[in-house]
Amino acid sequence: MSGHCAKDVRGATAAHSEALPGCPSPVFCHALEAKQARCTQAALRPLLSSFRDARSSSPPTIMAASSLSFGAALGLRVQFQLHCRRILLRPQTTFITQHRHKSTKKSDPAKTRTAQVNHIDRFFAQYPSFDYQPTAPFIEEFTRLRQQEKWDKGHVQNARREFNSAMVLTFNKMYGKRADALSAWQKLCSALGVEDMPRDIASCKQLVRGKHVNLVDFLQPPEPGTPVRTFSSEGELREYTQEHEKFFPRKDVNAGSLLKCLLRRVG
User: How far apart are CA 228 and CA 7, in angstroms?
Assistant: First the structure.
């Protein structure tokens, strides 16, 4: 009788394991079943022993009571299995979901650039009939807009004034406004590709102002992801600026002290 009861318990365990889905792997399920079986056998061993003793020496009423206790213990075992599965399986499933979500998340370079130059994007948004290309050089986009709209001289001057203000505001957002801020000068050094970053304003200022650079390229380098282009002489910088019409406004109400330190006459 005792061997038959033990066999029934093992059969009920196997059937219950197959009926419960959600286990992430067979190895994990087998390990969990083995652990639960050891705990259950230890808990049921005294009841099985008392059941055998009751069968040989007790009247039928005591045997019925023993059988009822055994059935209640089996019910507790099933509840114990369910509880263990909820505790052990749920954290692992949550971890896998979060890990997959994190690994598949990708940044969008176009969105990053749009966040940096949104003042320039807002300028072009005033002309919904114009097919603005955010990834194209915005100086060329302004020229294309001017040709499409066929502005007269007065309209070109007003539009250029607004466009200049958008460039200044973009510079302020990317690098800052204050010439007495070390972080602002370090951002400029970083844009130039400096690896051994200076730790004081004087060294940063000397390094930046010693380069021949077009300020428009600080907003949008000719080659994305590369350092801002530098020129060997002021004459070479002047030719590049005039050829590509990359002029930065010398006077703008939004210009901060940092930008004023960098502006120079090249033509």
Answer: 78
